Amino acid sequence: MEIQAERTFRDVVIESAGEELFDCYQCYKCSAGCPVSFEMDLLPHQIIRSVVFNQKEKALSSKTIWICASCETCTTRCPNEIDIAKVMDVLRQIQVESGSEAKEPRVPVFHQAFLDSIKKTGRVHELTMIRNYTQKSGDLKEKLKSGEWKNDVKLGMKMFLRGKLKVMPPKCEGVKEVRKIFKQAAEHKKK
Amino acid sequence: MKVSFFPGCSLEGTAREYGESIEAVCNAIDIELQELSGWNCCGASSAHATNEFLSIALPARNLSIAEKTERDLVTPCAACYSRFKTAEKALTGESPVDVEIPFKGEINILHMLEFLCREEFAEAIGRNITTPLHKVKAVSYYGCLLVRPPGVTHAEHCEDPGGLDTLIAKLGGESVFWPYKTECCGGSLVLTRVDIIHRLNSRLLDMAREAGADCIVTACPLCQANLDTRQEEIGAGKGIKYNMPIFYFTELMGLAFGNQGVDKWFGRHFVDPRPLLESKKLL
Question: Where exactly are the structural domains of chain A?
Fold first, then answer.
């Protein structure tokens, strides 16, 4: 009789990342070199362990997966050649697909605003992307309340006066093809 | 020499002086940059952090267009470069990917720094130097994605790269040793976690100061923007005035070449580098 085991969270992560997570012997090197570990609730080596132990909730509800800046230091230094940054990507992707709220909710909102900008114009238009992000993340509301918006306006004005703020959206002749890619991505997700 | 050029989104906005100085420098050494026709955004961190398909397909479209030109593809942004190299590896690797965009991997994908450091341009660069950057003490800041991970970038010395240091010395400047060549600036966390950006960039600025540098040289629009535009507020929070100019390496090349456009480029900086250069009698 053939026993078909159910695919666990661990199996999905290992398969999607294509990494040998069981090779990790918890040497701490990834965590020691991580430049943003001071803001993490689980250190990178603990993230790897949580996946190996199939602790889905622990890994996906961590701040860590959104604080990770994708600097690739961990991947570069891992003595077992585990692409830890890739594992972080896979965890973020699974978290986004789950539809639940992220522990650092602003980061995925930023990513969505960024991708929406590409979908609309083929290239990122910084001004509209920032506007969308600040509205959707609640950043705008908060800054209006605290008065911090004045600093942002000051920064924006400085940018503008230095010719660093592109007011008109970019023109990309390939925008239709780019939208097709986004459509394919959506279909791909359904599979 | 003619190559395909992928400017990336920030060259039209926050990194305008990078684009202007690249054009001037390439003109001077007879490199023709042919902007990639109909290029799209590479997807940057936002694609790979949330959608695997987009993280390969968005750069793949650009690579496919570039391959049809049969010319090498050069990009000035470390993030675009990293996404292109990652897509190249995925599209030409052994494990199949679902993206159906043709790319055989028959062209080279290069970052602008890597490209201009090629031996074939050494003579032309040397010939164009009219104002050697004597007394300029600079630290080279490569950042993350120009060199990491080596499995993607094939960087020879990913913990201690040297191309930019060699270039600074060639331009007549002094390349000052510092241990933060490849530390992270926080990149795309700039809108979401400004506190982290402040902490990382404050460390970089402090170390550059301690090393005795009077400026930082970058090869990435994100690194330059984080260090330059946030410098005043970082300093204000600590009661310090850093006044540390943050250059794109092509701006220093243009300066050494005696290019007339330098004043316009430097006028776009938040930390004006002109007083420093005037004190060194370079302007």
Answer: 9-98, 106-190
Mutation site, A15, A73, A154, interface B, largest B CB count within 10 A = A73
One-letter identity of residue B139: V
**CATH classification code of A9-98:** 1.10.1060.10
With CA atoms as reference, the chain A residue closest to B57 would be A181
Do B97 and B27 have their domain in common? Answer: yes
Q: Which residues pair with B175 in a beta bridge?
A: B138
Range of the domain at B273: 131-259+268-279
Q: Among all residues of chain B, which has the CA nearest to that of A108? A: B50
Provide mean pLDDT across the span B105-109: 97
ipTM of the prediction greater than 0.90, yes or no:
yes
Q: How much is the pLDDT for A2?
A: 66
Q: Are residues B190 and B275 in the same domain?
A: yes
Q: What is the pLDDT of residues A55-91, one digit of tens each?
A: 999 999 999 999 999 999 999 999 999 999 999 999 9
> Is B136 in the same domain as B273?
yes
| A1 min Cα distance to partner chain B (Å) | 31
Which residues 89-148 in chain A show a CB within 8 A of chain B? 89-90, 92-93, 96, 104, 106-108, 110-112, 114-115, 117-118, 122-124, 126, 130, 133, 137, 139
Provide mean pLDDT across the span A44-51.
98
Confidence of residue A48 (pLDDT cuts 50, 70, 90): very high
Mean pLDDT of B266-283: 97
CATH label of the domain that carries residue B17 = 3.40.50
CA–CA distance, B25 with B62 (Å, rounded to integer):
24
Residues B152 and B275 in one domain: yes
For B34-44, the pLDDT digits (tens) are 999 999 999 99
The answer on B77 and B139 residing in a single domain is: no
Subunit contact B191:A96, Cβ cutoff 8 A: no
